[in-house]
Amino acid sequence: MANIKSIDEANVKGKKVLVRVDFNTPVKDGVVSDDTRIRAALPTIEKLIGDGGRLILVSHRGRPAGEGFEEEFSLGPVARRLQELLGKDIVLCRELIGPIAKETVDAMEDGDIVLLENIRFDKREKKNDPEFASELAELADIYVNDAFGTAHRAHASTAGVAEHLPSYAGYLMNKEVETLTSMLDDPKRPFVAILGGSKVSDKIKVIDALLDKADTLIIGGAMCFTFLLAKGKGVGASLKEDDWVKEAQRMLDKARANGVDLLLPVDVVVADAIDENASVEIVSIDDIPTNMMGLDIGPKTVALYSDAIAGAASIFWNGPMGVFEMKPFETGTLGVAEAVAQNEAADTIIGGGDSVAAVNKFDLADKMTFISTGGGASMELVEGKELPGVKALS
């Protein structure tokens, strides 16, 4: 991984510091409903204002059209929550660049914080427009990226501005990169990787990479049915990718060749619909009814997976075992989460996305060694890709 400088090496006193954070948080009725990502940025923010920096925070939220202000995607609720957490005033600036933004920033004193409105209100952000990146950089003296969750995107605020300013990684960015790369480069063994989710096509590169690193690879979620097809099983009405059966077979062959224990479900929870009130039963993978779909792993599979997890010294988990958002289909994901939590001797890393939502739902987050804030970024790092947001800091 690229050699990146930490904010501990930066002299920020009296300097205007443009800080890319990841405040892409859910909002309900005008209030932030999950402030995990805001809290994750606090150590970096507190360090920089404590050292006398003048902070210009930059983030996106949601997927606005890029044609200007949209109330639905405003960072107003984020500014209010950040103000509560820090106990100090946050100025929300509606303009991203230009005279008003410059006046707002120039009026700052040491330790002040300005939060620019949603950076994606300008479509040039996602295009990494050089002129937009240059104007954004003109607001500041120093650039800090603490948004690991967007590090796989080459956007103006994640990569472009770094070409114009002395650039540093915030504490969260540093921790994410160091933790994930050290686990992948030199894991304590046995190393057990757990992958869930709906599609093999979304995870094939991750599976491929982990088969070169893990001792055991556990597969759950709907993507297991494409693997089961590759093994000649009938999967009923379950979600499957016929075009990816050959790739699944290739992964099974690679696991055998590499001596990796690739575990698939032995029983599943099936239903006639993805519904809280669906008709549900537990069946062997040899007996999936043609008119029913698998929506969770079964109890025998939970026991099988839990045994493998109990013997691990390193655990990486990304993706749920089933439709855990619904009570009838949450047991598999809960079982795996509990098994990971109970292995207190292991290094346990939750690789972002729905896995984080699951451990939070089951109130097990404090039992995990490390929880990544970036689903897509952590997956690309696992694949071995160079992340634009990290490369820009080197």
Number of helices: 13
What is the typical, i.e. mean, pLDDT?
94
Tell me the fraction of residues in β-strands, as a range: 15-25%
Q: Going across the major beta sheet, what is the strand order?
A: 5-6-4-1-7-8
Spell out the key features of this protein.
single chain; 394 residues; alpha/beta; six-stranded parallel sheet; 13 helices; 34% helix; elongated
Structure explained in plain terms:
With 394 residues, this protein is an alpha/beta fold. It has 13 helices and 17 strands. The strands form 4 sheets. It has a 6-stranded parallel sheet, sandwiched between helices. α10 (331-342) links the parallel β15 (314-318) and β16 (347-350). The longest helix is centred in the first third of the chain and has 15 residues, at 36-50.
Summarize the structure.
With 394 residues, this protein is of the alpha/beta class. The chain has helices at 36-50, 76-86, 99-106, 130-137, 171-185, 200-210, 224-230, 245-258, 299-310, 331-342, 354-361, 375-383, 388-391, and strands at 16-20, 27-28, 31-32, 54-58, 91-93, 113-116, 142-145, 167-169, 191-195, 216-219, 261-263, 267-271, 280-284, 293-297, 314-318, 347-350, 370-371.
